[in-house]
Design the sequence.
């Protein structure tokens, strides 16, 4: 079976080609799946996509009309996929339900320490041979309070690092994680977490209930000198409200690896273009803000697991097997004898 992979980064390509070698032929494209690029998939039974692909109704209709039967998304998140439309069109949809939580947790701490100790500003200064320390003062994290919103696998890994720093641990989630509680985490309501935390890190999925979880009211409830880190999904934060608070001189630092309007921007070179997103343009001008382009997951370990799971999802589809990665299954009548 021929597979078309959209949105493949240069570092990913050899891993994907190696993963599918001996199983199926794969064609890797660096362009992302959109309404304009969807016709490229005509004749491909399986399509693999990235988290920023457009898998709305019109794209799904184009894929189905062109003969696509399987969409294998190379990410855990799937808020970009209209699952109801996919089901009506008879498309099978699978994702990567798990990969290294350490990749994201460690990167969240990278952002937290970078904004706390003004690493980007210090590096830029020394490139100009400016070795002053003015404006570079950070603070010890030991003994301070960290608030972790979402204590699943990634949140737990983040919490273990916070415990290593010797921080007081506050958590919020729909269910307590015994491993985090065992580290001394106290589960509290969001309001107390916002009010008491010196550092807040987001590790919840983007769902209707969590969209703009960090809204204007939540931001105002936080300490003026708090650090906010988001390595989960951009839609968790009301970015315009965040910009207003930053303009008012609030927050010791903000580290963002995701942005609510990142589709069509992140993973692309826009350096020679005029970026029309005024909110993002304003956000990156603040000296206490570090924005990266959705790279928290981007380690050889995590990407290797993502590729391996994507390959397995394709093999399961061909064999008629269903796994926990399947979001929209094939109709039972179309499965092989081993389908369950």
Sequence:
């Amino acid at each position: 079976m021929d597979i078309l992979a959209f949105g493949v980064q240069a570092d990913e390509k050899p891993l994907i080609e190696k993963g599918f070698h001996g199983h199926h032929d794969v064609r890797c494209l660096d362009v992302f799946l959109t309404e304009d690029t969807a016709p490229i998939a005509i004749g491909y039974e399986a399509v693999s996509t990235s988290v920023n692909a457009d898998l709305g109704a019109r794209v799904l209709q184009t894929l189905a009309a062109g003969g696509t039967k399987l969409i294998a998304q190379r990410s855990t998140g799937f808020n970009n996929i209209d699952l109801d439309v996919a089901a009506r069109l008879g498309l099978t949809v699978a994702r990567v339900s798990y990969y290294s939580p350490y990749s994201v947790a460690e990167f969240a701490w990278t952002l937290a320490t970078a904004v706390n100790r003004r690493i980007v500003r210090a590096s830029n200064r020394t490139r100009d041979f400016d070795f002053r320390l003015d404006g570079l003062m950070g603070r010890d994290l030991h003994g301070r309070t960290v608030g972790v919103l979402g204590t699943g696998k990634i949140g737990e890994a983040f919490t273990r690092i916070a415990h290593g720093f010797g921080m007081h641990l506050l958590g919020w989630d729909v269910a307590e994680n015994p491993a985090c509680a065992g580290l001394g985490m106290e589960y509290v309501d969001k309001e107390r977490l916002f009010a008491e935390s010196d550092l807040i890190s987001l590790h919840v999925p983007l769902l209707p209930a969590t969209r703009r979880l960090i809204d204007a009211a939540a931001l105002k409830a936080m300490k003026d000198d708090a650090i906010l880190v988001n390595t989960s999904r951009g839609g968790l934060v009301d970015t315009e409200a965040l910009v207003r608070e930053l303009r008012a001189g609030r927050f010791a630092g903000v580290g963002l690896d995701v942005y609510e309007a990142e589709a069509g921007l992140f993973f692309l070179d826009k350096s020679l273009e005029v970026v029309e997103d005024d909110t993002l343009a304003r956000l990156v001008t603040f000296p206490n803000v570090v924005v990266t382009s959705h790279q928290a997951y981007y380690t050889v370990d995590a990407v290797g697991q993502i590729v391996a799971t994507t390959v397995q999802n394709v093999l399961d589809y061909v064999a008629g097997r269903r796994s926990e990665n399947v979001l929209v299954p094939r109709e039972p009548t179309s499965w092989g004898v081993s389908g369950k």
About this structure: The chain has two domains: 2-99+300-334, 101-291.
